Amino acid sequence: MKKNFLKNIVIIILVVIALVVFWIYTIDPSYTIIRQTEINVPQRFAYQYLNDLKNRKNWSLWESSYKNQIFVFSPQTKGVGATYSWKNLEGETNGEITITKNKIDEEVTLQYKKYDGIDQVVELEWEIDPVGTKSLCVIEVHAKTTFFGRFRKSGVIRNISEDIEKSMEILADSMQTAYLEEMPKVTEGFYGFRNVLSITKTIAQKRVGSRDFVWPAIEQIQDYINLMGYAQAGPPFTIFHSTYGNNTTVEVGVPVTGDIVGKGDIIPTLMMGEIFFVEVNGSYNQLDDARYFLEDHIIKNKLKVCCDPFEEYIVMPSDSITTAGLVTRICIPK
Q1: Residues 254-299: pLDDT tens digits?
Q2: Is the Cβ–Cβ distance between 184 and 282 less than 8 Å?
């Protein structure tokens, strides 16, 4: 009787254990956490900031929890393949983060590997969407729990969610500060009275960043100037008139002296007046960001302006001028 009783107890225990194991197996070990924040910086800047591991303290969810660690960076800190790891004082690697893929100005994916005790792999996907002149930064964290970690899965998700929210506050502040430090100084000036020959076109929005539409138009106007015996009186420029859907209307012009006459697409006009402007040295990839920055400055400070923004190409591309030597002035007339 006693043996049968003990046998039944053992059977019951085994059944309970089997049910518990089965129940654990039914719990999905995977989880995804999504959080987002809007930051007052343009999309290109947000992408560059997140694509550089030197800025990792402002988005890393784990680094602050590791004390007395030695951090080691790969030779490159930006782009796919960039890696940094942390080791304890004995030289053992406890974890590493690697940029595994990216999509220019839109997405950065990182892989986090943790080695201290329980190996774990976490994937972080940053997506950057434009919201006017701001950026919506969305982070997705994908990971799996261990077998017994499934018991505390909800607690793990809650803790990581809290870490993400704190990190995003730091990210927004640091990214905004870095952006403002990089932007040029806003200056007031005067654009003298000048006759202009210009060509107005409507182009695809995606072509604005490269400015590839500018140079053929400038060359066409300059050829006409030479043909007519006029003299160029200042740097070429582009005025950004309006955007409709995926297209932008732009006016490319060249200041000219004398009594000018247009022909075909080349139209005479007049440029003059006081301006707010910023001066940008280097790549044309920076120009849209600088223009948005100038427009935001005018809106925030409630400054009065009268016309559309324009760019003056003070130093243009040539065989003897490198990208670093380019100088562009972005102006908005008062």
Answers
A1: 999 878 888 888 888 877 788 899 999 988 878 888 888 898 888 8
A2: no
Q: Which residue has the tokens 């030695």?
A: 70
Determine if the pTM surpasses 0.70. Answer: no
pLDDT over 90, % of the chain: 25
Tokens of 142: 């994908």
Domain that holds residue 86: 28-182
3-class secondary structure, 160 = helix
User: Could you report the per-residue pLDDT of 12-30, keeping only the tens digit for each?
Assistant: 666 566 655 565 556 567 7
Q: Looking at residue 62, which CATH number applies to its domain?
A: 3.30.530.20
Give the integer Cα–Cα distance in Å for 139 and 164: 9
pLDDT at 62 over 90: no
My answer on whether 173 and 205 are in the same domain is no
| C-alpha to C-alpha distance for 223 and 257, rounded to whole angstroms | 15
Q: Environment class of residue 23 by beta-carbon count within 10 Å: exposed (0-12), middle (13-18) or buried (19+)?
A: exposed
Please say which residue of 160, 182, 204 terminates a domain.
182
Q: At residue 98, what is the residue type?
A: T
Q: Are residues 239 and 312 in the same domain?
A: yes
Mark whether 84 and 116 lie in a shared domain. yes
Q: Are residues 79 and 154 in the same domain?
A: yes
Task: Give the pair of three-digit tokens for residue 276.
Answer: 């707010």
329 phi, psi to nearest 5 deg: -110, 125
